[in-house]
Please model this.
Amino acid sequence: MSFGYQVLGFGSGVSGAAPYNADFLCIAGGGAGGGAKMSGGGGAGGYRNSYNSETSGGGGSSETALTLTPAVQYTITIGAGGASQGNNGVDSSIAGTGIATVTSDGGGFGGRSGGQTGQNGGCGSGAYGDDGTYAGGSGTANQGYDGGAAGGTSGHSNNGGGGGGGTGAVGAGGGSQGTPGVGGAGGNGVASSITGSAVTRGGGGAGSGHPSNGTSVSGGSGGGGNNNSNSSSDNGSANTGGGGGSPGGSGSAGGSGVVIIRVPTASYSGTYTNAETPIVDGSDTILVFNSTGSYTG
Model:
């Protein structure tokens, strides 16, 4: 449940107190899936993490924790998923005075007729799989992996779109670049225990195949949308940054992003907007932002 007001008076963070470190997980919105048969799956949103030496997306290293200053307000922006075909996911970010802004890039939208190659993004999208061989989109370094290549022959025979890239793995190839007539599976996501238990996020969306209307391809673990058949696919899961599946009529939507901040309870100010109910894990307090809000150090 999100709260649109400030909660005051918890913790001991006060003006004049010493700066302190805060770990973060910042995931952008996933890209939409392509909106036709043989189109590519959407790429997951970019994934940046500083907690407990866990990896970031694309095989990147864990990042340096933020140093927050008491009484300074930090803005948390949550990127929406791509709403329909042709739309990348939207960036998520953490910004405020005294820190370098943390930005995760929105996932690429699935390749489709008229835009055959996959799109670049936090994770690249899968390519369109008709009348040639096309490359998947590129993921952003240290945020996500590339989308799957795709290919087929003129006349739509045994073609398939590539899977969207995930934060933990490249999207699988479709058609002649994978299994003929089958779209590529989305790349898997990455697990983080920043909230106290392991959760996998940032899976890529599945591509779609041809000619079988019954082809079913899995999105990546971590919220990537599945291709249930050539005429129906899933949206990426909300607040995971998962890529949308393909085709889904006008293209299935990508999942929205999420930002999580973990601070020492001894320094936690208790002042925030639009976060979920705080989680206490050991000596730390955790704020999960599923919508745009703020935290005051």
